[in-house]
Structure formats: structure tokens, C-alpha cells
Amino acid sequence: MDKTMQGERAQALRHTLPVMCGYLFLGMAFGATLAQAGFGPAWALMISTLVYAGSLQFVMVPLMASGAALATVALTALMVNVRHLFYGLSFVERFARMGRLRPYMIFSLTDETYSVLCGLPGDASDGVLFRVAIYDQLYWIAGSVAGALLAQGLPVDLTGIDYAMTALFIVICLERVLDRAQRMSVAVGGVCAALCLLLLGPDRFLAPALALTAACLLALDVAKGRDAR
Fold this sequence. Notes:
The chain is an all-alpha fold. Helices cover 79% and strands 0% of the residues. The protein has 2 domains: 2-158, no CATH class; 179-229. It contains 12 helices and no strands.
């Protein structure tokens, strides 16, 4: 049994090392951003443990600082993380067979964890899948708390470190632009965001822009399906 557990740990660690490199740095960026908004390491620990949704956590900081309404936070969370519903569809049966681990596997399915799970061999054990998920979250928690502590304890100007997540989104967007099949989706998202920004302003455009983008893309998919018939 011990050898089996050691093998699972080693396999999970090997597959999550690339995620660790990214999560530690981005987690530190989140922790520093949170600290600059007036929320200490305890908040970083709590949010990264209970929310654990990288991009949403960055979005939450200005919402928390401004005292946004709960309905606004909930709608924003839904729009930002709605893609996870589609991720989960490909693992419904696999997670269902994991018994008591199923709720946590659903909760911890981030973009990076999903990518790692998809790359695992088909015969990977439940223990490997669980360790991949929990190791990734531990990397993020460690980075978040470290970032908050450093921002409070070091006389260093960390202004602009929150741009790390923006830079990540820019890279992801550029990758989609380079993929011809994704260019229409990028264009639709850009137009919807610009339109909502002009109409609603920088403080209120995000959730409506995401909802409008999702509706437009859904309509395009429906139209393509009808044309295919």
C-alpha cells in the first residue's frame, strides 16, 4: 500500500510541476493585490481555500474593495467560471466513480488541473487524480499567502504586480488569435466587451459583456448547426 501511495504521489507531482511554477507566481500576484487592497494573509488563505478560482479571485479584489452587492459578485462569478460547466461534462462519469472524492474534484477543476487530468493515462488511479487536484490547490494557496505576507512585510512597491493575470489573459488571447478556428470567438468577445464598456463604463461592463458574449456565441453555434443540416 505504501509503495502504491508513493507511486501516486510521485506521478501526481511529476505532472503538476509545470502548474506549480505558474501557480506560485500568479498566486503571489493575487496575494499582493489583495494585500494592497487592505486584506491581509488570512483573507488570502480563506479565499484561495474556499473560492479557488484564479481569474475570479483577481476580479473579486476590486469588488470587495468597493463593497459591491452580493448579486453582482454572484453574477460575475457565474460568468467568469461558466466554462467549467463544459469542462466538467467530460469528467462526469469519471468523477462519479470516485465516491467521497467527487465533490472536491468538481470544486477543484481549474483550467490547469483540467489540462493535467486530460493528459493523464487512461488507467490513472483515483489517488493520482485526487493528488493532482489537491497539489495544484496547495501551490495556489502557498503562492497567495506568500504574496500577501511579502506585500505587508517588505518595503517594496508592488504596484502593477496584479498585471500578471492580465498578461496571462493577453497570452491566451493571442494563442486563440493564432488559431484560425478561434478567431471569430475572439472577435465576438472583443466587440461585446467594447460595446458594454462604452455603454456601461469600466465599473459595470464586465458581467454584461460576458453574458452578451456567451449569448452571441451560443447563437452562432445554433446557426451553424442549422446550416449543417
